[in-house]
Amino acid sequence: MAAPETSSAAVPTLYTNNTLRNAFGGVLSFFILLLIGVLAFSIRLFSVIKYESVIHEFDPYFNYRVTQFLTKNGIYEFWNWFDDRTWYPLGRVIGGTVYPGLTLTAGTIWWLLNSLNIPLSVETVCVFTAPIFSAFASWATYLLTKEVKGAGAGLTAAALLAMVPSYISRSVAGSYDNEAVAIFALIFTFYLYIKTLNTGSLFYATLNSIAYFYMVCSWGGYTFIINLIPMHVLLCIVIGRYSSRLYIAYAPLVVLGTLLAALVPVVGFNAVMTSEHFASFLVFIIIHVVAFVYHIKGILSPKMFKVAVTLVASVGLAVCCAVIAVLIALVASSPTKGWSGRSLSLLDPTYASKYIPIIASVSEHQPPTWPSYFMDINVLAFLVPAGIIACFLPLSDASSFVVLYIATSVYFSGVMVRLMLVLAPAACITSGIALSQAFDVFTRSIKFQLPGISSNAEVDAGEASSAIAEAQNDAVKTEKPEETSRDRPSRKNKKKEKEPVEKPSTKAKAKAEKKRLLALPLEASAISLLLLVLLGAFYVVHCVWAAAEAYSAPSIVLTSHSHDGLHVFDDFREAYAWLHHNTDVDDKVASWWDYGYQTTAMANRTVIVDNNTWNNTHIATVGTAMSSPEKAAWEIFHSLDVKYVLVVFGGLVGYPSDDINKFLWMVRIGGGVFPHIKEPDYLRDGQYRIDSQGTPTMLNSLMYKLSYYRFVETDGKGFDRVRRTEIGKKYFKLTHFEEVFTTHHWMVRIYKLKSPKNRIRGKTKKSKSKTGSASSPKGKKKNP
């Protein structure tokens, strides 16, 4: 009798230990997540510590300006704001052409802080929005990975995402761009989809649609979600994994998500009229056909089911054919087949370079190099394959989604370097799964072979707890029918109740013994564990270096190190300050589109083109002016009411991202609209040259003259440090433009259009004098 009593007494003891262990693990996981959030936030503060609290890059200045307008004038004025300081003389409707998620988020944070009497400026809130949401993205990654492979993999993936350089490059303090909040929205939407898929809850399905709506508000990359999820649903149907949970996870997202997306002004009817969304509707029809087939299978006899399947298949095929015909008609009526230019450039990497040079001219739209993968995701590139294999052991609906996510993101990142940002979460999730599984194998192998544990006959606590849980479930199942028939169980019944408890414990021991046999040797496990720790340490060092050195410098303030110390180049703000204080409020400034947002936000002057690039003809007009001789360029700018022209020049200090290096894109974009601009006219034997071998068309272009005017006075030779050569045309004068300001390091140069009145008056005087001398008789005095 003693043995059965001991075994039955072991059940509550081990169950209590398991409960305490789970509670301690939950508390520990919470504090680890808290530390991961602090890490994600703090590693992005190098830009503020090393430089100052300032907005970075070009696009964030427009977002900052819009946020200022929102906080000052309110939400209704924001939706109806017509900005007459951009794209002169066309202007721009801001509320209908901007993704409002980032602006509304930062504006809400600013409003809440001020409501709590925390008086922070709008600029400060904008600077720290990205680091805050990077912490949120890390926590969302934990939730997503936990749904796939457990809490251990989730914590590892969250820690990896907090430091991955690819994400840091877009979320450092001051990087106030759409991706700052969009990556969190992307991961959180995927988490809610997987959560709904695992639970079949309509509550999570509704939250998923709301998260998708926030993603639509935040970034144009929402089309990745509305295509990836239908691909996964179709994959599950094809491999025979359809369930009611799959239907609940997908159908509300398409219906409610599309309705909500159509509420965003910049999207509107594009949510149902463009090719990027058609895949979701087609899969929506397919899943309803499949759901109907499964439904009638349960209520009809096999013979009737065959007849019904034939009927449903026929009707479904007819409906699909009709929908496909409508889609083909809509697509065929569009010159771009219903796809946007950026989407077509993803499907066909050569499309942009052939037909839309304005897209190909953007550096972040170029394909990445192999070193950029190692720079942006580092050792994760080698862990991703192991994580994919782990997702197949075993394959579930959630793990199949992760495999599909990593496969598609690898392709898109190979097409466009900007989409390395989409690859980063997928790489962190799969790498987190791989590291978690590896640590589990190695630590279990070491634990099984330690002297204190190998001699112990007791079952491992983790295995015992799971076995006891199963035993209790079985015991409950066996007890319920007996207790309903008899209120007082006999000794025989007590023995029967004890038997199911003892059998699973024996099964657990056998399972643990099998794992012991599969354990790796102790030395190999210890060395492998050490190598994994070293790999993680190398990853941490690389990520901290990338955050501190590679991605912390704001593009508006540049630095360089030399033998005589650190040099700071603050020429951009110097030039914008000069424009703000020395020009009239209504003056128009022409420059290449890269600097439009900064000019409007920092100098508060009207620009001809900016970074929105919505009007290719307008940009081509500016490109044509820059590519034309001085007189023709003056006429183009004068017709646009331009008073000042701004060019960026890096030949003196070695700044490579200047307008001379971008000049061929101006030629290509201008030539795409105005055929008299031909790229071969600017090339010598197919080479782009600015030295003595440069073509006359190149050396007489306005961009060349505005960049190299008086440049020979700097060193007497006119040596360009970026192109590493002496310029071809050193001594020339400007006839239609005059230099009004050049920054300290010659990085920004501003010219003013000469007034046409003086020149026209001069020509009139000459023509009048010639006419007067021809008509007046000799000896007659000329009218002065």
From TrEMBL:
Membrane topology type: Multi-pass membrane protein
The protein's annotated pathway: Protein modification; protein glycosylation
Composition skew (Basic residues), residue ranges: 757-769
Family indicated by similarity: Belongs to the STT3 family.
Name used for this protein in its record: dolichyl-diphosphooligosaccharide--protein glycotransferase
Primary residence: endoplasmic reticulum
One Pfam family, short name: STT3
Principal EC category: transferase
Assembly mode: Component of the oligosaccharyltransferase (OST) complex.
Enzyme Commission numbers on file: 2.4.99.18
GO CC annotation: endoplasmic reticulum membrane
GO molecular function: dolichyl-diphosphooligosaccharide-protein glycotransferase activity; metal ion binding
Protein's organism: Durio zibethinus
Spans traversing the lipid bilayer: 23-43, 93-113, 125-144, 150-168, 180-205, 211-240, 247-272, 278-296, 308-332, 373-393, 400-417, 517-541
Coiled coil: none
Annotated region described as Disordered, given as residue ranges: 472-508, 757-784
UniProt keyword terms in alphabetical order: Endoplasmic reticulum, Glycoprotein, Glycosyltransferase, Magnesium, Manganese, Membrane, Metal-binding, Transferase, Transmembrane, Transmembrane helix
Co-factor(s): Mg(2+); Mn(2+)
Keyword ATP-binding: no
Location of the Oligosaccharyl transferase STT3 N-terminal domain: 27-429
UniProt biased composition (Basic and acidic residues): 476-505
Catalytic activity line of the entry: a di-trans,poly-cis-dolichyl diphosphooligosaccharide + L-asparaginyl-[protein] = N(4)-(oligosaccharide-(1->4)-N-acetyl-beta-D-glucosaminyl-(1->4)-N-acetyl-beta-D-glucosaminyl)-L-asparaginyl-[protein] + a di-trans,poly-cis-dolichyl diphosphate + H(+)
Domain STT3/PglB/AglB core residue range list: 586-645
Subcellular location, record wording: Endoplasmic reticulum membrane
Keyword check for Manganese: yes
Highest taxon above the source species: Eukaryota
